[in-house]
Amino acid sequence: MENEENQENIEQNTEATKETKEQTKEKTEEKGKVTFTPEQQAVIEEMFSARFSREKKKSEAEKEEAAKLAEMNAQQKAEYERDQLQKQLDELLKKDRWNEMSKEANKMLKESGIASDDQVLGFVVQDTAEATQEAVKAFVDLVNTKAEEITRQKLSGTAPRVQTSPASNMTKESIMQIKDAAKRQKAMAENIHLFQ
């Protein structure tokens, strides 16, 4: 019965499309402004046909889906709902496992002296406890290695040298015996305590 109605609708749509084409053609001819070459007319008709067939396929697919849902019995509907609930349960269990693993990873990182945030936890938390523990260990080793490298770089500089001037061992008499006046004045300035 539905097929007969669909067929009638399709025929009516086809007739309406033909009538619209004829009316458009008549109006175009009446105005005399727009004329199409046979190639252009063929392209336009092809576009109309393609659009009509797409809409027809879409309508048929929707009707098939509605018929399929209507044919589902109570058991099939219950199975569908059960599948949906199972998906939700699996997702919640996965989130719960991630939360538990992130707590353990956070605890291990704190024991190693590393502060953690969501980004670090996202990096180290894995599906299993063993994998998470290995990831945390690898992360801690990486952080410690980098910290040691940075410390070594900072400490690798040369120590400042303490300059001992020979003038500090000088006496007032040895300063006065310097013949060059500029050097003598410099030595006096460096050892001013001897002349006070």
UniProtKB/TrEMBL annotation:
Bias (Basic and acidic residues): 16-33, 57-68
Domain of life: Bacteria
Listed InterPro entries: Gp46
Region (Disordered): 1-82
Protein name: DUF4355 domain-containing protein
